[in-house]
Amino acid sequence: MNPITVSPTGGAADGLAAVVALRELADGLEDQAVERAMRGGWSWTQVAQALGVTRQAVHKKHLRRLVAAGVDLRRRHG
Amino acid sequence: MADKPLPNDLAGILRQGRAIAYAMGARTLEAEHLLLALADDADSPAARALGAAGLDPDRIRALLRAERRQSLAHAGVELVEDPVSSLEPGFTPRWGTSAKDALVRGKAAAGGGLHRETAADLLVGVLGAEVGTVPRALALAGIDRAELIDGLVAGLR
Questions:
Q1: Which of B33, B50, B130, B153 makes the best surface tag, with the fewest CB within 10 Å?
Q2: In this predicted model, what pLDDT tens digit does every residue of B132-152 receive, in sequence order?
Q3: Distance from CA of A44 to the nearest CA of B (A)
Q4: Which residues of B touch A (CB under 8 A)?
Q5: CB distance A14–B71 less than 8 Å?
Q6: Are residues B86 and A8, on separate chains, in Cβ contact within 8 Å?
Q7: Which residues are bridge partners to B94 per DSSP?
Q8: Chain A residues with CB inside 8 Å of B84's CB?
Q9: Do A22 and B72 make contact, defined as CB atoms within 8 angstroms?
């Protein structure tokens, strides 16, 4: 059975598009918030706890970006 | 992704699409970035077709922003300012599903065979999505996507 043709706007499309937009917004907010915390002296462990993810996950996702942004990450092993 | 080299103009569009995705802070290359790359390639058949519909790069960017804002508003979120991600130098956005799908539809528009696909075929592929960011942005602006595709296909023949 072929699926019905659907509209890109209205109804279910609006709800699904909201999810996409929220994911993108959350990504941008995470980048900004992590950078702000690290510039403020937070440790990787503290940031990970605040986000509810592992330290390794935060490190993997943000380390190179923060280094490139000039954030001083020395002595931040905790 | 491709085993065989792509036509020069298409390869250039894909490179430009990746650069646009990077500049926009996107971790994945999506169909909307390909659309902007196609519109950027002034004097190409794809850009001319978009231009005839009033879709220059600035307008497309404005429509994409309007789509995001409207979609967020549906969830009760109002943006004061856009929090744009800043990716590290050298980061390469990965292929997103919407861009892969557009490439596959473009290949079909070219009559099969990836090496035959041109930038104009890719535009047909980008515009051919039924739902998602690109069709939604165009629909919200009152642009007839089917008409755009018909005009483009007619111009290619």
A1: B130
A2: 999 999 999 999 999 889 888
A3: 18
A4: 25-27, 67-68, 71-72, 74-75, 77, 79, 82-89, 91, 130-133, 135-136, 138-140
A5: yes
A6: no
A7: B28
A8: 28
A9: yes
The partner residue sitting opposite A20, judged by closest CB among B71, B85, B86, is B71
Question: What is this structure's pTM?
Answer: 0.90
ipTM above 0.95, yes or no: no
Tell me how far apart the alpha carbons of residues B137 and B115 are, in angstroms, rounded to a whole number: 30
Chain A residues within 8 A of B67 when measuring between CB atoms: 17
